[in-house]
Amino acid sequence: MKCTICKTGHTHPGITTVTLQRDNTVVVIRDVPAEICEDCGEYYPSDTIARRVYADAEETAHRHVEVEVQRFAA
Fold first, then answer.
1. What is the separation of C-alpha 47 from the centre of its chain, rounded to a whole number of angstroms?
2. What percentage of residues in the chain have a pLDDT greater than 90?
3. How confident is the model at residue 46 (pLDDT cuts 50, 70, 90)?
4. What is the 3-state secondary structure (H, E, C) of the chain?
5. Are 56 and 26 in contact (CB under 8 A)?
6. At the N or C end, where does the chain have fewer CB atoms within 10 A?
7. Average model confidence (pLDDT) across the chain
8. CA 71 from chain center: how many Å?
């Protein structure tokens, strides 16, 4: 697919790191499968993957963790 951010690059399947911040919580999730732009590096996880990433981050925020690094489990 064509990247919606840079408008020039095309995406390819890959693995990326997602960093999310909410209030005082930062969650870093490594090894997330996504389509990644070859030019700018923007990533596009599938809807299913995105829901899991957000659910994990929400759970971490509810535990009032300041910083947590996770590995995405397929």
1. 11
2. 93
3. very high
4. CECCCCCCCEEEEEEEEEEEEECCEEEEEEEEEEEEECCCCCEECCHHHHHHHHHHHHHHHHCCCCEEEEECCC
5. no
6. C
7. 96
8. 11
Q: What pLDDT does residue 74 have? A: 74
Contact 59, 18 (CB under 8 A): no
Domains by residue range for the chain, with CATH: 11-71 (3.10.20)
Q: Which pLDDT does position 9 carry in this prediction? A: 96
Q: Which two tokens stand for residue 68?
A: 């947590």
Residue 73, C-beta contacts closer than 8 angstroms, at least 6 positions apart: none
Count how many residues are written for the chain. 74
Q: Which pLDDT score, from 0 to 100, does residue 43 have?
A: 97
